[in-house]
Design goal:
With about 575 residues, this protein is of the alpha/beta class. The chain folds into three domains: about 1-220, 7-stranded beta/alpha barrel (Alpha-Beta Barrel); about 235-330, no CATH class; about 345-370 and about 385-560, Immunoglobulin-like (Sandwich). The chain is about 25% helix and about 20% strand. It is built from 16 helices and 22 strands. It has helices at about 15-20, 40-45, 45-50, 65-75, 75-95, 115-120, 160-165, 190-200, 210-220, 235-240, 240-260, 265-275, 280-290, 295-310, 340, 545-550, and strands at about 1-5, 30-35, 55-60, 125-130, 145, 150, 180, 345-350, 355, 395-405, 405-415, 430-440, 455-460, 465-470, 475-480, 485-490, 495, 500-510, 520-530, 535, 540, 555-560. The strands form five sheets. Strands 12, 14, 15, 16, 19, 20 and 21 form a seven-stranded antiparallel β-sheet that branches. The chain has a six-stranded antiparallel β-sheet with strand order 8-9-10-11-18-17, with no helix packed on it.
């Protein structure tokens, strides 16, 4: 019997494992670890079973990626990535053990043919694979060592189940049994590995035990090269899943950046680390339905790593990444499970543009009390205004700025445009939309008070120098003058695209100089009482993290949003 153990990466019961091995002189174990698991302390705890050849250590890549899929993503680049990760893992193993690991255990036993020369060059004597059928094109390799996986749903496998699983496998012929206990892939519950090894140590067994390397030394006949993957993962599922498609797109974006000729090496290094973290095989198995697990947690974790790649490269995160790979809505703004992508702003940038997008669960409110009847010919109240219920035209979805030598364009994306209250003179109806700009980020420099009647103020660190105000009387750019109050610099044309739900204002560059990437922005909506005044009651909508929106009230202190 060859017993291969693949513990979860946070396994910590090393002393109990060593003690169990030492109580049964005939028991031998092959243990597969990632470099981070093999610390000097772990090495010292396992020193005696290692020295007496009761234990051998095999290598894993952190996250146990599905190598066959990583390699298929883009043959040359995928091979390069895997080779780099293999070499790094082996180097770290060698630093702790002063010798190469005995063999290599790919995630779930899914091997890749093109890696055989690399295994040989790195001194890895064998590669653990599953017992699936070989493909028609596959060639045999003496490096492949097939293992049958012991599975147990809910409860740890018993000794009887282990012995039954050890009966000869037709695919392995008359060869002695090889069994893998894989906690990392979720085939057996956490804690099963140590419990079963303790039981094997406590009870006399009829098995003749070998390590994987001892087994290979006895028989070097070629094993089916297409044998792979003990968790039952079907490679055909990978390319068709939204999760894997997102990985492919992200890897391609990283390659384009790397080959652009203008890549920042530190950003590239950080983004590559994030991409490697996104290769973790467990997440893709759970999301594809071929492995039990918390799909919501896997979904959040995978999207976080993929989005990190774009953010570290300062590239736009594709909008699809804010939707669940599991097919559920990405965010309601209230579900704790979606907190990472629903409560904070999405900030994206380019060399001449900047975008802020509100959380998908952003809030808005309508004026809570009814107004006196409107004068004849004035805009009608927004639907729901007298009832105090949420009215979509108040809700801000995002702000995008585009600039060049001639102008700075502000494009506001709204949840809705109320065409019923719009007129030719006042295309915004009763909506008032303010954007306050802090150009220097100097506390106290500028104005903390918003424009008259707004019922809110800016945080001291976010005092504003310029304000763009759009409302029933049109658009205006104002400059903060602490001694006398805001002064109007210029009228600003306002254009409304009801179909796209956008409001746009373009400011001449000579009126608003500097680098918009360094500015801070406060964006809020209000209700107009008349063409010249804002109705009391404070902001109705805000560009801000969800927590600040939930705390919004009259007299609120507002913080600017800006690039990190």
């Amino acid at each position: 019997m060859v017993l291969l153990a693949v513990p979860a990466e946070d396994f910590s019961q090393w002393q109990a494992l060593a003690d169990a091995l030492l109580t049964a002189p005939e028991l031998k174990l092959t243990l597969a670890l990632t470099p981070s698991m093999l610390t000097a302390q772990v090495r010292d705890i396992l020193a005696l079973p290692l020295r007496t050849s009761r234990l051998e250590l095999a290598m894993r890549i952190p996250g146990d990626p599905i190598l066959s899929l990583v390699m298929d993503e883009s043959k040359a680049e995928g091979l390069h990535d895997v080779l780099a990760r293999l070499a790094l893992a082996r180097e770290k193993f060698h630093a702790v053990l002063s010798t190469a690991p005995a063999g290599f255990v790919p995630g779930g036993g899914a091997a890749a043919e093109d890696l055989v020369p690399a295994f040989q060059a790195m001194g890895l004597a064998w590669v653990a694979v599953g017992t699936g059928q070989a493909s028609a094109q596959a060639q045999g390799s003496s490096h492949w060592l097939p293992f049958a996986a012991l599975r147990s749903a809910g409860n740890p496998p018993t000794l009887d189940e282990f012995n039954a699983a050890g009966r000869p496998d037709p695919l392995l012929g008359a060869q002695p049994s090889r069994i893998v206990l894989d906690e990392a892939s979720g085939l057996i519950p956490r804690g099963s590995l140590l419990a079963l090894i303790k039981e094997l140590a406590d009870k006399h067994s009829s098995w003749r035990w070998q390590t994987a390397s001892e087994r290979l030394a006895e028989n070097t006949a070629a094993a089916p090269a297409g044998s792979r993957d003990w968790p039952g993962w079907s490679p055909e599922l990978g390319p068709s899943t939204p999760a894997w498609k997102a990985y492919q797109d992200t890897a391609a974006a990283l390659r384009r950046y790397q080959n652009s000729g203008t890549a920042d090496l530190k950003a590239l290094e950080n983004a590559t680390e994030a991409l490697y973290a996104a290769q973790a095989g467990r997440d893709y198995r759970i999301l594809s339905g071929t492995m039990a697990g918390d799909a919501s947690a896997a979904d959040r974790e995978l999207r976080r790593h993929l989005m990190d790649v774009y953010r570290r490269l300062k590239l736009t995160v594709p909008g699809v990444f804010y939707a669940s790979f599991a097919g559920n809505p990405a965010s309601t703004g209230t579900a704790a499970a979606d907190e990472e992508v629903s409560t904070d702003l999405r900030i994206e940038q380019g060399p001449d543009w900047l975008s802020f997008q509100n959380p998908l669960g952003s809030l808005s409110r309508a004026p809570a009390a009814a107004e006196p009847p409107s004068p004849k010919g004035s805009p009608s109240p927004l639907p729901g205004a007298e009832k105090g219920v949420s009215a979509e035209p108040w809700r801000i979805l995002g702000l995008r700025l585009d600039w060049d030598a001639a102008s700075v364009a502000f494009t506001f994306r709204m949840a809705a445009i109320d065409v019923s209250s719009a007129t030719a003179y006042s295309p915004l109806g009763r909506l008032v939309l303010d954007a306050y700009v802090d150009i220097n980020h100097v506390p106290g420099a500028g104005s903390s008070a918003l424009l008259e009647g707004r019922g809110a103020f800016a945080a001291n660190r976010d005092c504003w120098e310029y304000a763009l105000s759009l409302g029933p009387s049109g658009g205006a750019l104002l400059r903060a003058i602490p001694e006398s109050g805001p002064a109007v610099l210029a009228s600003v044309p306002v254009s409304v695209d009801a179909a796209r739900k956008t409001i746009r204002a373009v400011i001449p560059r000579h009126l608003l100089r500097g680098n918009p990437l360094r500015w801070g922005y406060i964006l809020a909506t209000f209700a107009a009482k008349s063409a010249a005044a804002v109705r009391p009651g404070g902001p109705l909508g805000l560009l801000a993290p969800l927590e600040q929106q939930q705390a919004l009230s009259s007299g609120a202190r507002l913080s600017a949003v800006r690039l990190p």
